[in-house]
Amino acid sequence: MPFRTTALRTALMAGVALLAAATATTAPASGAPAGPEPVPGAAAADAGRAAPYRVTHLKAKTDVDAVARTGAAIEYVEHGDLIVRATPAEVRAIHRLGLRTIPLSTDPSGPGTMAFPSSDAAYHDYAETVAAVDAVVAAHPTIASRRVIGKSYEGRDIVALKISDNVAADEGEPEILFTANQHAREHLTVEQALYIADLLTGQYGSDPRISRLVDGRVFWIVPMVNPDGAEYDHATGTYQSWRKNRQPNTGTTEVGTDLNRNWGYKWGCCGGSSKSPASETYRGKAAFSAPETAAVRDFVLSRRDPNGGKQRIKAAIDFHSYGQLVLWPFGYTKATTVTNMSADEYATYETLGRQLAATNGYTPEQASSLYVTDGSIDDWLWGQERIFTYTFELYPDDWTVGFYPPASDIPKATGANREAVLTFSEYADCPYRAIGKDTTYCPAANQFGMTLASTSGTATAGGSVSTTVTTTTSSGSPQQIDLSASGLPAGATAVFFPPSITSGQTSTMVISVPAGTPPASYGVSVTGTGTSTTRTATFGLDVDGRAGCLGANDTDLPIPDLTEVRSPITVNTCAGNATGAAAVEVHVVHPYVGDLVLTLVAPDGTEYVLRDRTGGGADNIDQTFPVDLSGEVANGTWQLKVYDAAVGDTGTLDRWKLSL
Fold first, then answer.
1. pLDDT, tens digit, for every residue of 545-580?
2. Active site: which residues (predicted)?
3. 573, 566 in Cβ contact below 8 A?
4. From CA 62, how far away is CA 55, in angstroms rounded?
């Protein structure tokens, strides 16, 4: 179970001290089932309270799903290792699988050493969240309004914020839903929702891209789905690591339902939730038995058009933390094409999901790739209402920080999703555009297509790169198209020659990058706004930094199990030291990136760890890592060291690039 770093160090020290005892009481090395394990704390034993454990000795990916079927709440996944929160009964069930558990805390009341520090005051509690929504409405009454969509178990209002250029009317525009804080302890998700509210309203009228979205979309933001649980988690001044709502369960002293296991599509079907009220993943006595999920369900159903019943909400994101993942349905099955999921639909989810993840550095994958879940909001929104929906698992990708990153991290954590949110919103009218099948699935009277002659390019800081934008009339009459770009590096500009064209014509886009721009990769969104249709395309911009300070190795290098391999790049034309804004771009083909440790080795032997077994069961690495190399002489032979720390999956280092 991840805690705040300071408390975690204490917990881990206790865990290390208990390791010998834990090994004696958990499953033996032979894999035979073990007897009952002592539960951390007498009170926990009496109440059957869930406690945090590390689960080790996983032998196959199927073991992760088997642990999930016990009802234990899996909080972090890496190959051969899990962090879970489990009741005594669930621990015994894990042992029967032949796995070991190591307790991470001996405190019977939970992580009691985690006092709410004054630095975390920037997080919004329930009253502050409602006040923040009201402040947005007061500041922007022509484009924002608030409504109560239901009540929590304890009677708190569940509030939704509407943002649209004609906020008092239903205009028939594509609607987008953002939900947050289904799980009580995931307070950062509330901040993400409020960030989006401030972004859309605060920059309306000044940012052309945001203005177009607000004019052409209807946004609904529910920043706190689980207000009772959120308040309970921090109300005493001590984090309770509480996940569920606060609804009592008849016939037991256990409290709470896991809201994201209480949705009606495939509820309780597939071992992805628990029937035990003591479990962290308790699914409730019936689908929508929690008033909070019922309230959001009723709101979504209310958005069906009264004339014909067509759902007006076209796209949705449900925010969770943590892990830095972009997840798509289905969670209840590992299959990609099943009832309610065609090959084109899955291809759209995967293609768009990877595009979104390219903007924020997250890992994209189907939800069940981590482990099977049933009764989730994503499965219901798509399976029941055909709403294209994703889950974003927010910052951090580090279980030692976990659910409680310091408030000082809020700006960078929420701001990292700006481009993903805007790109997703642009696709809301027709997500099939991501696979080039918008004319098939979203026919319109007048449509145009837009492509880029080169979809990627490289610019040295202080230089420029160009591409050709080609448009075609897909159906109906030609239309006038205004061109723009977003997602550029700070200070960079994109100029179109000409800036406005008629469909069937071309334009040249020139991106100019200012000197001093840090080397990195950017997903630049090129938008064509026509009189009746909007189209987007993505240009991959690589900024390489100082001329002569670049290197690349495109030679494929196999990565065997439990083996370290090294790929060299020699730089000999870069004067002086490397910079504090150096970058390492890595492309690895591998079916389970949680196996891998990536390390940059400087010419003098100094090592810089880029990635240490993060990303869980996702496949492939396509990522640029910023590194401060200002203390290193630039010229010499640099090495990318790749270590596969587990067995069962192998891969290949496809290529890597170094910018100093």
1. 776 788 889 999 999 988 899 999 999 988 889 888
2. 393 (proton donor/acceptor)
3. no
4. 14
Strands (E), 24-117: 51-56, 73-78, 81-86, 100-103
User: pTM of the prediction?
Assistant: 0.71
Active site annotation includes 365: no
Bigger pLDDT: 389 or 109? 389
Yes or no: domain 5-103 corresponds to CATH 3.40.1000? no
How many whole angstroms from its chain centre is CA 63? 23
For residue 537, the cross-strand partners are 526
> How many Å apart are CA 262 and CA 260, to the nearest integer?
6
How many other C-beta atoms are found inside a 10 Å radius of the C-beta of residue 561? 13
Whole-number average pLDDT of the chain? 86
Q: Give Cα 99 to chain centroid, integer Å.
A: 29
Question: Is the CB of residue 204 less than 8 Å from the CB of residue 210?
Answer: yes
Q: Is 343 helix (H, G, I), strand (E, B) or coil?
A: helix
Helix (H) or strand (E) holding 551: strand 550-553
- Burial category of 121 from C-beta neighbours within 10 Å (exposed 0-12, middle 13-18, buried 19 and up): exposed
CB-CB contact of 534 with 428 (8 Å):
no
Domain boundaries, the chain: 5-103, 118-286+314-432, 444-543, 550-659
What is the CATH topology of the domain spanning 444-543? Immunoglobulin-like (2.60.40)
What is the C-alpha to C-alpha distance for residues 365 and 369, in angstroms, rounded to an integer? 7
Please give the pLDDT value at position 22. Answer: 38
Residue range 118-286+314-432, CATH number: 3.40.630.10
Q: Mind listing the pLDDT tens digit for each residue in 318-355?
A: 999 988 999 999 999 999 999 999 999 999 999 999 99
116-140 pLDDT, tens digit each = 456 688 999 999 999 999 999 999 9
Q: Which of 90, 393, 426, 632 is catalytic?
A: 393
Q: What is the CATH number of domain 550-659?
A: 2.60.120.260
pLDDT digits (tens, 9 = 90+) for 395-426: 988 777 788 899 999 999 999 999 999 999 99
Distance separating alpha carbons of residues 616 and 77, to the nearest angstrom: 5
> Residue 640 pairs with which residues in a beta bridge?
567, 600
Query: Order of strands across the sheet with 506-512?
Result: 447-452, 464-475, 506-512, 493-497
End-to-end CA distance of the chain: 38
SS3 205: coil
Contact yes or no for 130/183 (Cβ under 8 A)? no
What does the pLDDT read at residue 78?
Answer: 59
